[in-house]
Here is the input.
Amino acid sequence: MARGSPLQNYLRRIMSQSTKSNFTPASNASDIGRTDFIIQSALSGMRTTMPVQVISCTNDGGLSQIGYVSVQPLVSAIDGNGVAWPHMVIENVPYMRYQGGANAVIIDPVAGDIGLASVCDRDISTVKSTQSISSPGSNRKNDMSDMVYLMTIIGAAPTQVIQFNSAGITVLSPTAVTVNAPQINIGATGETLQALVNASFETLYNAHTHSSGGTGIPNILMSSTQLTSTLKAG
Here is the structure.
């Protein structure tokens, strides 16, 4: 390659423009080095997925639409001198929720979560604002501004869970479990639960006493056949 060619001039500009460049003197030592640098530079602009840490979230577990997180990329950039350059915090990042129509499992990200984020190959800013088919908001490609937070990948043992394993399903909460519905159906075990409820009421009723006249037991004892409590099987 002739000295002073357009490609060499381009490489010299890269060397002088920023200390963050991954260009090294060895890159300019041969045609192979220069070509390899150009290829590697092009490939380095391709973003796929990366680990990030959640800095903040617009939602806190309430009944609301999907929100946004601010995240800090955890793998820093390295320049040609081996110096690490941390990335800036990325704002307004949509996060993934298990949702279909009006049905959702709401588990909002929390500050400190370490998760996996994916970078879209085109500008998604217009889609985020219109929530419909749109043209790219700009000509940028594979830019961290078009990141989507997917899921937590590193974290401590949870204290509030819905657990599925070979032993069955466990719902565990250190505070409360609230079920709110106009009708609750219990499956095949409903008959067993009904028998337990009936037996409990029978025991409580037959053991009670009357305040007037001493401690006599009820004149008529109750049997399980007299109870009308029902549980609807699913």
Notes: Confidence is low (pLDDT under 50) at residues 14-20. The longest strand covers residues 49-57.
